[in-house]
Each structure stands twice: as structure tokens, then as C-alpha cells.
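To: structure subgroup
Subject: Chain for Friday's discussion

All,

I'm putting the inputs and outputs inline so they're searchable in the archive.
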Amino acid sequence: MDAATLSAEEQRLTSILATWAAASVVIGGAAWAVGSMQQKKHLVGFGRQTFMWGAIDGAIAVAGLAGARKREPFTSDDEVQAHRAKLRRILLINAVADVAYIAAGGAIMARDRQSRRLVGMNASDGAAIALQGKFLLALDVVMAWRLRD
């Protein structure tokens, strides 16, 4: 993989994450607001989680964009390959974390009453967490595959 292709893949990753983040903030914020006004706890939980995950994903996308912009241009093919391998490793580690998010969301959904008592979340919080984890897992795995040797 050459430097231009690697930069394009990083830009693709950042753009997809930023788009997902923006959609999550808008949809989550709207659901949270409507749920609050209508006193629908499940809509509040789903909206709150979706909004917060979107805000975090947005911050990650902005940090990725800023890091790419201030990084010095690659001076050798070895630097390109080292950066590609590092980015791929990060994506694969994130994929493992994504599986944990999906499992945690599922556990919260399965134990709705207990979760409300223990961590203040309901099944809709769990559904939002699982949904975010599934999207991030797909993104991380696809991008890691695109960065393979």
C-alpha cells in the first residue's frame, strides 16, 4: 500500500465515523428530547446513549483528522507500512472492544430490571449500546480488512 492509498483509507475511516457520529447526535438528541417531553423512559434511554456515543465518536473522528493533518509526510515505504500496520492493529483491538459493547448492551437488555437498579439503565440503553457496538464492529473489521498486507 502506498502513502496516497493509506491516506485515502484513513480519510474514508474518519469520514464514515464522523457521519455516523453526526447522525447519532442528531437522532439521539431528538429521541432524548421527545422521550423527556413525553415521559417515555425507554425513548430517553435510547436517545441518551445514542447521543453520548455519537459525541464520543465525533471527538474520535476530530482527533483522527487533526492527527492526520499535523503528521509529517511519510518519507519511506517502511514508514507507510509501519503506520498501516499500527492502524490495522488499533482497528482489530477496537473490534474486540466492540464485541464487548455488544455483549454489555445485550446483558443490559436481558436484565432490564436489575440494570435499572444497579446502573440506572433500561433495556433501551442496552439496545442503543448494542447498536453502536455493531456498527463500530462492522466499521473496524471492514477497515482492518482493507488495510491487510
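Points worth raising on Friday:
The mean pLDDT is 93.
The first helix runs from residue 3 to 37.

D.
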